[in-house]
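User:
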Amino acid sequence: MEDLLKILVVDDEPEARELLKFMLQESDGVSVIGTAGDVDEAIHLMKIGRPHLVLLDIQMPGKDGFQFIEQIQGMNHEPGVIFVTAYEHYAIQAIRNSVFDYILKPVHQEELDRAILRFRTQGKKVQKPDLHELIETLRNNGPPRIKLNTRAGYMLIDPVEVVYCEADGNYTHIQLSSGARETTTQNLGQIEELLEGSTFFRAGRSYLLNLKYLTRVDRKNSNCILDYPGDSCSIKIPAQKVKMLESIFSK
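Assistant: Predicted structure:
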């Protein structure tokens, strides 16, 4: 009989956590010691449950999956890590070329079972040089430019240049750090999917903010101040979103 494999699930989406937990219950010799919705909760459960393996989402508000790995470096107990990600672009090739394993969302039972079997067979632990090499590769490559439809055709933009996006019915206005303001024929929900990443924050129905440019939040007036080269702007967002922002930066 195989030794019991203790697993921690880390994902900011409750549905994703529950699905993985359910699927793991179908695997022999596996025990889910807990699920966490953010890095700080995951670190806490790490210390209590001492898992052998962590199924880790890369993209999470606040601290991301890479920061989780950085935080557990040097701890007395360092588990193996399998990334569970919706990435389908530049990051996948970088992960594939590294020592890390990954499963693509939506997760299928067969793929999950194979990943667990690989871990049992290879038993890889996370080494600091491996993590640094992966992060450096991701930073150097960066996300590709994304294609946005316009009335006349399409445009290509670099996500890091997006300061904020503003909904206008089925259209979206995009403020760029260069000062240019573009309009796409795609709605804000579609843009949010394209600009997936931990630096973007959905601030209600009308705005998607790049937190890279956020410099100040006025709680009283529910205003966010974003600064970019040569200019700044003030955007009013719902009060509950102001609280969510505060929780992100309090972690």
